[in-house]
Design brief:
With 653 residues, the chain is of the alpha/beta class. Helix content is 28%, strand content 23%. The strands form 7 sheets. The chain has a 6-stranded mixed beta sheet with strand order 14-13-12-15-17-16, sandwiched between helices. Strands 28-27-18-19-20-29 form a 6-stranded mixed beta sheet, with helices on both faces. A hairpin with a 3-residue loop joins strand 12 and strand 13. Helix 5 packs across helix 6 and helix 9 crosses helix 15. It is globular. It starts with 8 loop residues before the first strand and ends in a 5-residue tail after the last helix. About 1% of the residues have low confidence.
Length: 653
């Protein structure tokens, strides 16, 4: 029997998900979709300028603001932007195929890495469990319950000067007596900070009845802008027992951190609470999946280590990121003390602390500190260029002696954002591309082996490199318009190349690459290369001086180095110097969960790293302009690419 709703309530049904939500009349349709867990894209953060959250109103009434991204033909078919639509009645809403965020995200790690990792670290988790069998009190030995615990730890395990969570005192009397004074004590150590002369005292965070030492688990989480990855760790054996990945639900409020900060500043919407709730909900789904995979009891998880960029970390903790976006770009704090995870809404027991990696600056966050740990950059004498390619585009240059870093503000093109048929690397995304130089017919590879519905960032690089190599596009990124092929044509947005005809796709439309798409990718790669060039200049080296280049992140793992060098994203140096490390942010979080030594290293690395702010750097701006060419205006910086272009080019000069 249907629930009888009041006059101010509306039932909204989303298809084909078959999800129903009940919301107040006047609720924004995008908010209703997010509340129902419907995976709807919204790259611009709900400002109505991108058109990625298009839906079709099958029945019911909405009030919509008409924008230029909705054509007259679409409007006549009841297609609306969810972010610009207000619910006025019960609705049935269809999510369009190209607006959907697929749940099946690909983790495409390289099968073989070069073995870069921190050297010689000791397995010594900061969270430990100790079993005690205590004598019961007598008139002759009637010290307090807590003193009995600390005395037992001192006598049996030589643990001194312990701090104690107040929360354990609430249940301590009955816990001790429930199992005849046989208990397991859990302690947690914080990292050594620069102002400390000694190792911080372990903190007693839990006392359980009986011997629970075999049930000692922790979580490592990478809180990414686009995706969230989690691992369930066995702290007794130093192993990963489950892994999961999902979209960060914040993506429905903006594809990048700038869009999300802007969303938070919109008046009257409680934007910070919405984005925090979205992140927490995503993390909870990851935890639920890890528990389902492993059949581990939730109560046996005792710690969380989380790596994320500065904005993602502050939003998760409920800290307003407003001033991250405004000059002089100041975060709330670089080091944030561990916080009880349940106070944020994370579904774990009350004793679990959440440790977040220290940030370096507004745009260099704990995910990069975590990545430097995972790659062992802070230990090596090799001059290293570390690159985490993504929306923010963070880079680090240095070794064990010094580290210098910057964020390149690459934009969302590497994640498929700002591209007409762009999408993240999920099933249906074009990821690889070859072209017949005689017929100009493409051969595409699609993730999942299904019909294509768009193109992901790595696919975009491969397509543009392929078109450049045979001369379908010039070094200025413009199409050769003298070609006689139906694949190269003038479309509504200018000249374009047809990657797949409508009958061959999931979306029933031609999937094309436009000159505007190429421009977006060129701007992104120019920011990354200019960042590298600027940092190198700052320390008086050149790109040819790098002993190794470490590519991090899931995007880096899917990158074709040769194609990336062809378009000028990566420096033209010997290919054997390039190494893929995969999700270094998650790897670092896992390692820190396993080693107190590496936990301390996270603070040391944060202190070592010097941040260079590029947004107002004149040399960076000049380098960026110079890099707005394929591969670069300075052809001498890409000798192997230019030789190949001159040799392989079929069309044009």
């Amino acid at each position: 029997m249907l629930e009888i709703l009041g006059n101010n309530k509306c039932r909204v049904r989303f298809i084909p998900d078959n999800v129903e939500v009940v919301v107040d009349k006047g609720t924004n349709l995008l908010d209703a979709a997010v509340a129902g867990g419907v995976r709807l894209n919204a790259s611009c953060g709900g400002f109505g300028v991108c058109g990625t959250c298009k839906v079709r109103i099958e029945s019911g009434l909405v009030e919509s603001i008409r924008s230029q991204v909705i054509s007259e033909e679409e409007y006549a078919r009841n297609i609306r932007q969810a972010c610009q639509s207000t619910i006025l009645s019960d609705l049935t809403v269809s999510i369009l195929e190209d607006s959907r965020l697929d749940k099946a995200i690909q983790i495409r790690e390289r099968e073989k890495h070069s073995g870069v990792s921190p050297a010689g670290w000791k397995f010594d988790p900061p969270l430990k469990k100790y079993y005690l069998e205590l004598p019961s009190p007598t008139l002759q030995d009637n010290i307090s319950d807590l003193s009995r615990i600390t005395r037992g730890l001192r006598q049996k395990y030589n643990l001194h000067d312990l701090d104690v969570d107040f929360d354990i005192l609430k249940s301590l009397p009955w816990v001790l007596r429930e199992n005849d004074w046989k208990v397991t004590v859990t302690t947690l150590r914080e990292p050594i900070k620069p102002e400390m002369k000694n190792t911080p005292n372990p903190r007693i965070i839990r006392v359980e009845p009986g011997d629970t030492r075999e049930k000692n688990y922790a979580l490592a989480i990478d809180l990414g802008t686009t995706t969230i990855c989690g691992q369930l760790l066995d702290l007794n054996r130093g192993t990963v027992i489950a892994q999961s990945i999902s979209f960060n639900k914040q993506i429905s409020y903006g594809v990048d951190v700038i869009a999300r900060i802007a969303f938070i500043q919109k008046p009257g919407i409680s934007g910070l609470k919405k984005l925090q709730a979205a992140a927490v909900s995503s993390i909870n789904e990851i935890i639920d999946e890890l528990i389902n995979q492993s059949h581990i009891a939730r109560k046996d998880i005792s710690h969380i280590t989380l790596a994320g960029n500065t904005t993602m970390t502050q939003i998760l903790l409920g800290l307003d990121p407003k001033y991250i976006r405004l000059s002089p770009y100041v975060p709330v704090a670089k080091y944030i003390p561990p916080v009880k995870a349940y106070t944020l809404g994370i579904r774990v027991t009350e004793h679990v602390y959440l440790y977040t990696f220290p940030s370096i600056s507004s745009y260099i966050g704990g995910d990069i500190v975590s990545g430097i740990i995972a790659a062992g950059v802070y230990q090596t004498d090799k001059l290293t260029f570390f690159m985490d390619i993504g929306t923010n585009g963070e880079i680090v240059i240095g070794n064990s002696e010094w580290l210098i870093t910057a964020s390149c503000s690459a934009g969302p093109a590497f994640e498929g954002g700002g591209i007409k048929y762009g999408m993240v690397a999920i099933n249906g995304a074009i990821q690889d591309f070859e072209i017949n130089p005689e017929t100009l017919e493409p051969e595409i590879s699609v993730i999942g082996g299904v019909k294509p519905k768009g193109i992901c960032g790595s696919g975009l690089i491969n397509v543009i490199a392929g078109l450049l190599e045979i001369g379908i596009i010039g070094q200025n990124g413009k199409f050769n318009t003298g070609l006689h092929s139906p694949r190269v044509r003038e479309g509504p947005d200018g000249y374009e190349y047809v990657l797949a005809w409508a009958p061959e796709t999931q979306i029933g439309q031609d999937i094309v690459l436009t000159e505007a798409d190429i421009d977006n990718l060129v701007r992104s790669k120019a920011a990354m290369y200019a960042g590298c060039h600027t940092l190198s200049k700052y320390v008086n080296i050149t790109c040819s001086d790098f002993d190794q280049v470490i590519l991090a992140g899931n995007f880096g793992s899917s990158l074709n180095v040769e194609k990336a060098i062809t378009i000028g994203l990566l420096p033209d140096i010997p290919r054997e110097r390039f190494t893929f490390i995969g999700n270094s942010s998650l790897s670092g979080a896992r390692l820190v969960s396993f080693s107190s030594e590496l936990l301390d290293a996270s603070i040391k690395i944060a202190q070592m790293m010097t941040n260079i702010e590029l947004s107002e750097n004149t040399y960076f701006n000049d380098s960026y302009i110079a890099a707005l060419f394929l591969p670069h205006t300075d052809e001498s910086a890409f000798p192997s690419v230019m030789e190949r272009l001159r040799k392989n080019r079929t069309y044009g000069r």
